[in-house]
Design goal:
Number of helices of chain A: 10
Oligomer: heterodimer
CATH class of the largest domain in chain A: Mainly Alpha
Strand content of chain A: under 5%
Largest sheet of chain B: 6 strands, mixed
Radius of gyration of chain A: 24 Å
Number of strands of chain B: 10
Strand order of the largest sheet of chain B: 6-7-8-3-9-10
Helix content of chain B: 25-40%
Largest interface: A-B, 22 and 24 residues
Distance between the termini of chain A: 34 Å
CATH topology of the largest domain in chain A: MetI-like fold
Order of helices and strands of chain B: HEEEHEEEHHHEHEHEEHH
Strand content of chain B: 15-25%
Shape of chain B: globular
Structural class of chain A: mainly alpha
């Protein structure tokens, strides 16, 4: 009796680990079924030609774009604008957010502006940014920046302000200076919040770079999307959307990987 | 006063002295102070183990924070070796009820934390020594979330001891632990105290714990907390768990229970239940 119970216990303990692979298999199967249905619907003419290209057509268009270098040339430009804009928002957003959490004066100075920018559809500023900075890469970087910087500021501020009071008291009890308190308690304590902010920032930045290029540009993924879109070349359009989504997903997944490392110590 | 007589004064004076201390809090929404502890006078000698018991809300934790310098009394003064306390100092270290471990640091990093704040890089041997002292050798690389409650508080204790304070302030350090672990930890604490010989002020609401550990038990009333009795515990040291079952222990227990029960009846009941 007890032996049977013991065996059951062990099985139960292992169950969560085993569950992962069936879930992944299910998701994969769903994808395959969906793609197949899509392919067949296009092949049998269930959707009007030009409305929805078949997955095979999307793949063919993609290969062609990759072959003649069009994809990589434009992707490179978008990647660069994305990376620079994001780096800039990290460089400004994280320090500013932390300072706003730490110093009341800094918070009072910037909080209204940040809150307004946070509520605003910042993408709507693209026409003005183009007027100010032209249609080159600088304006794209600026759009990525205003998209990404806000979530980093907000989360940096929250990370410091939501610091564990008992840890602050602990540091004070050990005679910590203000700088020590910041470096040893508040900063490491904000890391999870900052990483969550970074994930949001990446999402905003991807949308920012694509939209800015769509609005006014002669190169980049957004420009490609725009030109294929206006010509109703659906296969190319779909392919580009998939590539951009995959890139955004990849960047977010990288942050999530780092986050999971920090999750381990957040467990109660 | 010339230097010599000042020295003599310091020698005669107790290690920690509270004179007529009143502690009060003001909520932002209210204009008046709520007094949590009042008229508290205490003299604690060097190397003494003092426990403070009282119903919840009697200000015993606040008193401890005030001795540490994290909280300022609104009246009276707190002296350590004759000098008034104005801020936290290296001569005092605190052990917290909620452990207050840095979740992103390992056991080693947590024990080193206090030393780091107080004087640059701590030597690994010293950190290791205190990890051994609290019996956590082999767990240096573990993170707090991988430890049991009792082990976490061992880390808290090692961290406090590692800065070599003269006074150890312990705020219901075993309050979050189950009864069994609590007794084990009390025994461990006494064993370590026997080695390190600090002056200890230990706040608890557990009567048995207060008796078992103490040279002297300070009994406080319900809020606003005042000292209603001081009981010298004459049980022989080193204390052994069996002493908890002795008739002398029972006598102390009923005496303390009576004192706490007379004051604020409901409160004392709750203490007993919890």
């Amino acid at each position: 009796m007890s032996l049977v119970d013991g065996a059951r216990y062990r099985l139960a303990a292992r169950a969560p680990v085993r569950q992962r692979s069936p879930a992944a298999t299910t998701a994969l199967m769903a994808m395959v079924v969906l793609l197949a249905a899509w392919q067949l619907a296009a092949r049998w003419g269930l959707v009007k030609h030009g409305y929805l290209p078949a997955p095979s057509a999307v793949a063919v268009a993609g290969v062609a774009m990759a072959r003649d270098g069009e994809l990589w040339q434009n992707a490179q430009i978008s990647l660069l604008e994305f990376a620079m804009g994001l780096a800039l928002s990290i460089g400004v957003g994280i320090p500013l957010g932390l300072l706003m959490g730490w110093f009341r004066t800094v918070r009072e100075l910037f909080e209204p502006l940040v809150m307004v920018l946070n509520a605003m559809p910042r993408i709507a500023l693209i026409p003005m940014i183009v007027v100010w900075l032209g249609i080159g890469s600088i304006s794209k970087i600026a759009v990525v920046f205003i998209g990404g910087v806000i979530p980093l500021i907000v989360n940096g501020m929250a990370g410091v302000r939501d610091a564990d009071g008992s840890l602050v008291r602990l540091a004070r009890s050990f005679c910590a200076s203000d700088l020590q308190l910041f470096l040893k308690i508040l900063l490491p304590g904000s890391v999870p919040s900052l990483l969550a902010g970074l994930r949001l920032a990446i999402g905003h930045a991807v949308i920012g770079v694509v939209l800015a290029e769509m609005y006014a540009s002669v190169r980049g993924m957004g420009y490609l999307l725009q030109s294929y879109g206006t010509n109703y070349e659906a296969a190319q359009l779909f392919f580009l959307v998939i590539v951009v989504s995959a890139a955004g997903y990849l960047a977010t997944a990288c942050v999530q990987l780092v986050e999971s490392r920090f999750q381990s110590w957040r467990q109660p | 006063m010339d230097q010599r007589s000042e020295l003599a004064e310091v020698e005669r004076s107790p290690h920690v002295e509270l004179r007529d201390v009143r502690i009060a809090y003001k909520k932002p929404s209210e204009s008046r102070y709520a007094i949590v502890a009042d008229d508290v006078g205490l003299r604690i000698q060097q190397g003494e183990f003092v426990t403070i018991v009282g119903p919840s809300g009697c200000g015993k934790t606040s008193l401890l924070l005030a001795i540490d310098g994290l909280l300022r009394p609104i009246r009276g003064e707190i002296l350590i070796r004759g000098r008034p306390v104005t801020r936290p100092g290296r001569d005092r270290a605190m052990v917290f009820q909620e452990f207050a471990l840095l979740p992103w640091r390992t056991v080693f990093g947590n024990v080193a934390f206090g030393m780091e704040l107080q004087g640059g890089r701590p030597s690994p041997e010293r950190v290791e020594r205190y990890i051994n002292l609290v019996g956590l050798n082999g767990f240096e690389r573990h993170h707090p979330h991988q430890l049991s409650g009792g082990m976490r508080q061992r880390v808290g204790l090692a961290r406090a001891l590692a800065v070599n304070p003269e006074i150890l302030l312990m705020d219901e350090p075993f309050g979050a632990l189950d009864a069994q672990t609590r007794e084990v930890m009390a025994g461990e604490l006494l064993r370590i105290w026997q080695v390190e010989r600090k002056t200890v002020v230990f706040v608890t609401h557990d009567i048995d714990e207060a008796i078992f550990l103490a040279d002297r038990v300070i009994v406080m009333s319900a809020a606003p907390g005042r000292v209603i009795a001081e009981i010298h515990v004459a049980l022989p040291r080193p204390r052994r768990p069996e002493q908890r079952a002795s008739p002398e222990f029972a006598e102390y227990r009923s005496c303390l229970h009576r004192l706490l029960f007379q004051e604020g009846r409901g409160e004392a009941d709750r203490e007993k239940a919890g």
